[in-house]
Amino acid sequence: REIGRHMNEPKIVVTKSTVPVGTAEKVRAAVKSQTQTSFAVCSNPEFLKEGAAIEDFMKPDRVVIGVDDDEARAVMGELYAPFTRQGGNRVLFMDIASAEVTKYAANAMLATRISFMNQMALFCELVGADVSNVRLGIGSDQRIGRAFLYPGPGYGGSCFPKDVKAIIKTADDLGLSLDVLKAVEEVNECQKVVVLHKVQRYLGADLSGKTVGLWGLAFKAETDDMRESPTIPLIEGLLAAGARVQAHDPKATDSARHIFEDRVMYAADPYSAAHGADALCVMTEWLLYRNPDFERVRKLLRRPLLVDGRNLYEPERMKALGFEYHGIGRGGR
Questions:
Q1: How does pLDDT run across 32-76, given as a tens digit for each residue?
Q2: Is the dihedral angle over the CA atoms 63, 66, 68, 69 positive or is it negative?
Q3: pTM
Q4: Are residues 31 and 146 in the same domain?
């Protein structure tokens, strides 16, 4: 409405945020209620990854533009031309509703792949297979591809959980039950406690007097974002079971303090988080966790129990280094 009140010449109103389907039409109605000036509405959802937003904006793999006005289409095409000179059909024009659905469908598909692989990981543990080998086997199929086939402690962040919930809610309101996506959500919630259950399997349900070290707090590397992070239910579960938690993250410590305050010991470096711990859990795939001084880590741990929630390490190597290693879907190893 404010845009409409201040509109003094024809404009193009573009929605960039991820919004429910139908938002563009609501924007159109709100602007129109405040002005007689002509204008166009476009939907241009962003596909920026946390930790790589600038790179994604400058070199997009695709630009989705929902538009129903020829002049607005021409202007938007010209606007994005400098960022899409790599070639290929990178600017995708479509109707507005399709553009709004595209963003939700993309994130829902990626969330589905993650939950699918997490289910396969649990299956691999039961039958003695290694999900890392399975990932390579199915990812080499060009119809499937290699992206987003990594099992772990569940997806988090500001996009996948919110967008899956939003598209489910929109469909429910229209009388359609998106059962696949409801299952994706259910699987993800269960996956968030898999690492906790592994710790309790080897240390016992009662963790009183036990110390658990954590490497990683953010929901993924290269960000300090802890929204919907799988580490949150893990820490809450460990504390509820009586454990002392000492955690390290290169960026997310301040975010964690807002959630846990002084209930967690925040380590200055990864080795301090491992010092005296009865188990060490790897929860975020930060680069500095990929190749630490394993001999030093093993000596610092009270018990060399390593629960690798991101499958960063090779089981046989960890065993040779003296660790009790347990990954996600690594055939019980």
A1: 999 999 999 999 998 877 777 788 787 777 899 999 999 999 999
A2: negative
A3: 0.89
A4: no
